[in-house]
Each structure stands twice: as structure tokens, then as C-alpha cells.
Amino acid sequence: MEVLILSSCGISQFPSFLKGLHSLERVYISNNNIKGKVPEWFWSLPHLSIADLVNNSFTGFEGSGEVLVNSSMKILDLALNHFKGPFPNPPHSLTVLSAWNNSFTGSIPLAICNQTMLTLLDLSYNNFTSSIPPCLSNFQTSLIVVNLRKNNLEGSLPDMCYDGALLRTLDVGFNQLSGKLPRSLLSCTSLKFLSVDNNKIKDPFPFWLKALPYLQALTLRSNRFYGPLSPSGQGLFAFPELHILEVSYNNFTGSLPPNYFVNWKASSLQMNEDGGLYMGDNSIPDYNYEDTIDLQYKGLFMEQGKVLSSYATIDFSGNRLEGQIPESIGLLYLAIFLYLSGNQLSGTIPKGLERLSYLAYISVAHNQLKGEIPQGTQITGQAKSSFEGNAGLCGLPLEQSCFGSNAPPMQQPEEEKEEEEEEVLNWNVSWIFNRTLHCFIQAGVARQDNWSV
């Protein structure tokens, strides 16, 4: 027997009969309730190359910290368990190491530098400390995904790419990283997904990243980035494939020129041309990876367990931007979420927003805006909170009429407003997400099984 599939079988103990199956190459025992430690003999099976132990209740490994080293393992998936303590030194033959959502502690093992063909490293949602191993730049011709999100890593982000690098996803959000973004990221010419949110990085806005031809998602939220978002002397703000730009809660200043969004080819927000439904990578043999991201919705940050490749959001909230909202914002035809709240923007809201027929949610709250709120269906269906904190605004959905005190009352019953808002949101989101897909998944909820059998 070469392949054994016991996934979702209600197993509560590690199947001891595997010990005699010396021809086994692939073992799938995910989505059970197996407790305790993985037995030492399991790693001695001579031909074992794939082990899927996802979503059980494992707590550790029998044997020493070298128990995995001599294994023939190529793909090891330990995600969604209760592993704790230091991570053992991995096998030299490993190409995929996925151990997200556990309780591993200590440093990321430096023995990982001894791999020869590492393709994916996902250690997110653990308690790793210390710094990111600089040796990850050794895997220029193999490494596609690095996800170290939600750990306690410190120091600066090391150089990850040189000429010829294949890296497509780099996610180091929710750590304690400081310093600047390494300019070597310019050599990550295949990069599609870059997230450094919720760290302590202090740097001007990285206009230079617009040279990356495939970058679809850039998340800088809750750092110490500063300066203008308008590239003075650097040409138009043109990221050719950008769908998600999340720069909220930094120290960005200055104004946005009227033509700011003119050259946003992808964020005029055309559909993704590569045919993939979700952002991620399916080029790794026997393994599918999907990106995750925390995005704002009505003031709450929620983890999106799958990021639709057609998803389009811009979040500039919580900075110190001033001046008028650019008229060119009306060119973002397929935008779903727009956040400009908590700045110092002034003037009127561009009428072009009426044309954004797929807009599910917009917030321009707590600025210095004035005049009539555009009255397109997608605007009037928003909650009042999307426009509050602007003393000069009037028109639906606010109670303040633009036509004086003799105009008919504009206040809607609370229940009716909530129903209308929900209808607008559902109509837009269902077009993108289909009726059976749920877009928002709270942190800690399991991602879909990543295996291809």
C-alpha cells in the first residue's frame, strides 16, 4: 500500500498498524481527533514523502529534537493542532512545511537553512520569537510562499530576494518587526501578495514597489509609515495589477491629486486574468496554498480566510490626509470597499461615486467634507455612520436636508434602513462571492483543506 486516506474518520488514536506498512508514501489522517504525540517510528517509514496531520489534537513529537531529520518527508502539514514547544529540526528533503495555527515557541529552527528545495514555509499563528532567518534568501530558485504571520518575531525584515527569485507570497503581518522595508524586494519580480501589517516598520510609502509587475495585494496597515501617498517627482501612482491597497493607521500626510487613480489599471478594478478564483498558489505539486488577509468592514477588522482574486478594496483611513477626494476615484468601477475615514479631507464628495455600482461599503466619516452626498443607489443605502463627523455634509443617508428646514423629513425608520443596507451589501457581495461562499472568516477558523490527492 502506497497511499492511505483516513481523513474525517472519527479516529482518536494514532493508527498503530501503519508501523508495518513499509511501502507507504502518502498518509492522510486529517480532520480527526487524534491526541497526544506523534510516535517516533512514524518518521522511520522508509518511503514516506507526504504526511497530512491537519486538524487533530496532537501536542508534540516522541523522541528528540532530531526525530525528523532523517525522514524522507517532502511535504509535512501539521496545521490546526496543539503542538507546543520548540519546533524539531526538519528533514533535509522537505519542500513544503506547513505548521500554522499551533503553539510552537522559540526561534524558527536554523536547520531550515539546510534544506535544498524548500518551496513553502507557513509557520503563521504560532508563538515563534527572535528574528527571521536571513538564510531564507538562499532559496531563490525554489521558495514561492513565506507566511510567518501572527508570531512574535523581532528585528528587521531580511533581504528575501535576489535576481531570479520566485517568491509570490510574503506575509509577516502581526509581529514586532521594525526598521525599513528591504529594497531587495524589487528583485521579487514574481511577488503577488505582500503583507507587513501590524508591525513597527518606519519608512516612507514604498512607491518603488510599483515596479513589481504582478503585485495584487499590498498591506501596510498599523505601522509607522509616513509622508505623502502622492509620488512627487516619481510619475503617476501606477501599480499595474494592484487590487488591495491597505495603508490605514499610519502617519501618511499630504493631499491626493485629482488624477490619482487614473493609471490604476487593475484597480479600475478589472477581473483577474489568470483564471484563479482565490489569491494564492496552486503551482506547488500536491499542495494548494491560499492567501489570507485581515480587512476592515464597518470599523471591524475581520480575517478573510480566502481572498477572491476579483476582490478590490482601498483603505486610507486613520491617517492625516488633507485636500479633496480625487475626482478620479469614480474610475474604480469594480471597487467593493472604500475607506477614507479619520483623515482631514475637505471639499465635496465626487459625484463619480454614483457610478460605482459594485460598491458594497464606503466610509468617509470624520473628515471635513461638505455639500450634498451623491445619491446613487450604492451611496444612499449606506449607514449614516459612513458619513458622520462631517459637519457640512447633507442628504441621504444623513438626516440633514440639503434644501432647508421646509423640505420633507429625510430620516428613515431604523429597521427599514438596516434592511436596505443589508440588501445593498448582499446584492454586491453575492455577485462576486456567489451565493454559497462566505467571505469573512474570523481569526482562528480553519482554512479549507489544502491537499490535492
UniProtKB/TrEMBL annotation:
Localization (cell): Cell membrane
Keyword annotations from UniProtKB, A to Z: Cell membrane, Glycoprotein, Leucine-rich repeat, Membrane, Receptor, Repeat, Transmembrane, Transmembrane helix
Stored InterPro entries: Leu-rich_rpt, LRR_dom_sf
Cellular component terms (Gene Ontology): plasma membrane
Gene3D superfamilies: Ribonuclease Inhibitor (3.80.10.10)
Source organism, top-level taxon: Eukaryota
Membrane-topology descriptor: Single-pass type I membrane protein
UniProt xrefs under PANTHER family: LEUCINE-RICH REPEAT-CONTAINING N-TERMINAL PLANT-TYPE DOMAIN-CONTAINING PROTEIN (PTHR27004:SF327), RECEPTOR-LIKE PROTEIN 12 ISOFORM X1 (PTHR27004)
Family statement drawn from the similarity comment of this UniProt entry: Belongs to the RLP family.
Protein name as catalogued: Leucine-rich repeat-containing N-terminal plant-type domain-containing protein
